[in-house]
Structures are given as structure tokens and as C-alpha cells.
Amino acid sequence: MNNRPSLLKAMLKGDDIILMPNVWDGFSAKVVEAMGFKAALISGAGLAESRLGVPDVGILGLADNLEGTRMIASRTNLLLIADADTGYGNAMTVYHVVKEFEKTGVAGIMIEDQVWPKRCGHLSGKEVIPTEEMVAKIRAAVDARENPDFIIKARTDAAIKGIEEAINRANAYLKAGADLVFADALLSVQDIEKFTKNVGGPVAVNMGFGIRQRPTTPLLTPKVLKQIGVKVIDYGRITSAAAIMGMKKALTALLETVDMETVTERPDLVVDFDELQELMDYKKYLELDRKYRVE
């Protein structure tokens, strides 16, 4: 039985703030878990970018999302929230989507109130559906889950219409049965404080490291966000953006050796081979091979 929903719900009721780095494949999930994190967000953007090589503009479909989510959930003990985008349709579709995501073994899903095709929360051109339509989606999601602890996280992008609209929607989504609410792209500390103060349930915010050339949510430490009243911090792009930077640095170093006579190891750029095998739990598979090998 999947007990991840119950474990995550207990954390939501606890005193500690919950940090959720993004994961998007087996590598990232293994690293996040090995670093001691208990929970993580499966990034829809990360799946679209890594699996398909496309931006987060609604091209990743339900089947690809489910396949990626199922693979990640089967390879880690992290308490995962999957990104179900807008639910891929209306409330009836959301009912089906929740059933399918619950089968993958994650602790919950996030559904947002953008117009489809959605956009990354920090891109321009976003639009939101009417509040009543999103409320119907939340009600359908709540009705569809088999485990009452399966987390329904409701995201609103209504801050584009002002903080009051985001607050009103968040409270409506909580009333409809959402367990956690998230307002993306809050542009000031004052807006974060006002949102958490006036929303009657657990609040998540996103810390978008690497977004430097456009207005975005200010970067704050977990200590400060906890003082403000935030319950969950999503780091929605930190591992994927860091992976790209790491690959660029390593490949730049490789190109610099083209005309050199000798090459030296660069432990500052790549992990040791044995560390990689340990991360992948190679010994477990070696033992299985020995156990079942036919001489």
C-alpha cells in the first residue's frame, strides 16, 4: 500500500517547513534523496525539457507525464507531488487524471487554474480560467482519489490580476477540498506575507533560482519564509538548471583540452565513478545477479 500521502499529510500538519526541490528523472530523484530531502516536486517543466527538449508550454501530454512520474516514483522513497498542469481538460477529465496519477505511487498532485495550453509561471501571456471552473476541478479531484490523504495541491496564477484575486481563489480552492494552495509569481515579500496571512490553509511558494532578467518572486531563506507563515517551499527548477550549468562547465573544460598533451582529473566537475555506482545502488543488483546466475 502506498503510504506516501499519509506521510506527507502528517508533515503538512507538523511544525517544520517542507523543502521540495524539483526532480525530473532517476538521476535527480536519487541525488535529492541521497542529500537528505524527504519530499520533492516532480517538475512538469523538467519533464518536458528533459524528455522532449521543449519548453513548458503544454506540449508534454498526460501519457508522457504519467510515464515519467511512474518511473520516478518507483525509484525513490521521496514524498512526491506530481505536476498535473491544468488537469488536461475540464472537471470530468481531472477526475480521470487523479485516478491515473494516484496509481503511480506519488503522494499527491498539483493542478493549476491557467487556460490551456499553460505556460511556465514566470513567462508572460498567462491567462486564468474562471474561479468556478477551477473549483469544479478541485471538487472532482477530491471525489476521485481513493486515499483520502492523497494530496490535492491547487495552484493559482491569478496574481496577474492582483494579490486580492489570488487570495480569494486560494480560499475558494481550500473550501472545495484542496489540501495545499500555491500562488505562483508573487512579486514581493509583502505579497507573500499578505497571501499567507489571509489564506485559511497551508501555503506553498516557489523560489525560482536562476530567474534574473525578469520580475519574479524574491528569493528568501526557509527560516524567513517559515516566519512569514509559509508551509512548503518549491524549488521548481533548481536541480534542472544546476544540471545544465554542470554539463556546460564540464564540456567547456573538455574543449579546453583539445590541443593539450595531457589531461588531468577534474573532481570539481564530475563525481567519482564509485560514487555514481553507490548512488545507483549497484551492489544490490550485483547481489541479485550472483543469486540467480546460472553457472
Structural class: alpha/beta
Strand content: 5-15%
Number of strands: 8
CATH architecture: Alpha-Beta Barrel
What does this structure look like?
An eight-stranded parallel beta barrel has the order 1-2-3-4-5-6-7-8, surrounded by nine helices. Helix 5 links the parallel strand 3 and strand 4 (108-112). It has a single domain, classed as TIM Barrel (Alpha-Beta Barrel). It is of the alpha/beta class. The longest helix is centred in the last third of the chain and has 18 residues, at 238-255. The mean pLDDT is 94. The protein has helices at 4-13, 26-34, 44-52, 62-74, 91-103, 131-144, 163-175, 189-198, 222-228, 238-255, 273-279, 282-292; strands at residues 18-23, 39-42, 79-83, 108-112, 151-156, 180-183, 203-206, 232-235. It is built from twelve helices and eight strands.
SSE blueprint and pairings:
Layout: H1 4-13, E1 18-23, H2 26-34, E2 39-42, H3 44-52, H4 62-74, E3 79-83, H5 91-103, E4 108-112, H6 131-144, E5 151-156, H7 163-175, E6 180-183, H8 189-198, E7 203-206, H9 222-228, E8 232-235, H10 238-255, H11 273-279, H12 282-292
Parallel strand pairs: 1-2, 1-8, 2-3, 3-4, 4-5, 5-6, 6-7, 7-8
Helix pairs in contact: 4-5, 5-6, 7-8
